[in-house]
Amino acid sequence: MESELKVITPQSTVQQSEPDDSPLLNQEPRTPEPQTQFMVSSQTIEEMEKKYAAYVRHDVYGTMGRGKLPWGEKFLLGLGLVFLLPIRVVGGMTILVIYYVICRVCTAFLAPNREDEQEDYAHMGGWRRAVIMQSGRYLSRVVLFVFGFYWIAETSRSNEVEGQLNNENASRTDQTEELERPGAIISNHVSYLDILKCLGCVYVQRELKSSDFKGVSGVVNDRIREAHQNKFAPKMMLFPEGTTTNGDYLLPFKTGAFLAKAPVLPVILRYPYHRFSPAWDSISGARHVILLLSQFVNYIEVTRLPVYHPSEQEKEDPKLYAENVRNLMAREGNLILSDIGLAEKRVYHAALNGNISMPTVLHQKDD
């Protein structure tokens, strides 16, 4: 089987090793010459774009943001780089510093909750929490405005959708406020900009630091249950796909957000575009930030679906619960279901970069 990465060498007299069955990556038996380049044929690119369609860019800037631009786009990009980029970088950094100072003042002389290796200020009360939350929401919106998101289109789907997805629970008319309150907000993941819509993070600890370490899943479940039962507890916004896509697809959901058996609020994020897509898919972080901040206008759409109440069967089967919410979001958001994940994204990125040093990438743990 031919490798999807075609190796071009000055001479073809070098003895070849046994064919590699890897669909994307093929290792050379010896270190290539400095002039040797690993190139992907046009046929291979088409095959990869079909296989890894959830991570393929379709904007003017092309794959990895390195496509050939028309002169008109080059002119507009030049204007943005000269006039918009410096102002937006300074403005964004200034807002971050202001919010950092506010957080430091509000948490002064206050010891965080370090249970399970998490530095948690999320359960603060009184004026401290009010100031941090309100200022955070306001400044997050200001950051988006500075970055060119001047308008945010927000829509809420009618209760007709709720009737479609909860047939078992349709007869329950005496639900209490606690039953109606979601424990978490579930959203598709398109860009790092998504996090500006939520405050309070649970950090991933990839190594265990104590024998009684609960882990991210345990912390998330505790917070979801508390948010469902206590209206004053902060809600979490979770991205169960585990990585970002180009915004047209919905990857398989991890079950961590659904283990608490609490209702969830599905939210669909979209970033419509004319020239540059804000989706963070197959483009480097630095290039993405530079191109994003050089656009004159960026767009965002937020669609809120009704609260999803799990059935008894879904409560006992988190995979079923997660899959049903995923199918609902795909249907209502006109998103395409995909069965690939983070491991395939790494393979696609490695192939685009001509990286042959990741033969075991598919065997890495998908966290």
UniProtKB/TrEMBL annotation:
Keyword line: Acyltransferase, Lipid biosynthesis, Lipid metabolism, Membrane, Phospholipid biosynthesis, Phospholipid metabolism, Transferase, Transmembrane, Transmembrane helix
Keyword Aminoacyl-tRNA synthetase found: no
Biased composition (Polar residues): 24-37
Top-rank lineage group of the source organism: Eukaryota
CDD domains per record: LPLAT_LPCAT1-like (cd07991)
Annotated coiled-coil segments of the chain: none
Region (Disordered): 1-37
Pfam families recorded: Acyltransferase (PF01553)
Phospholipid/glycerol acyltransferase domain span: 183-272
Pathway: Lipid metabolism
InterPro entries: LPCAT1-like, Plipid/glycerol_acylTrfase
Residue intervals passing through the bilayer: 75-102
Keyword Transferase: yes
Subcellular location: Membrane
Signal peptide: none
Annotated family: Belongs to the 1-acyl-sn-glycerol-3-phosphate acyltransferase family.
Protein name: Phospholipid/glycerol acyltransferase domain-containing protein
Source species: Rehmannia glutinosa
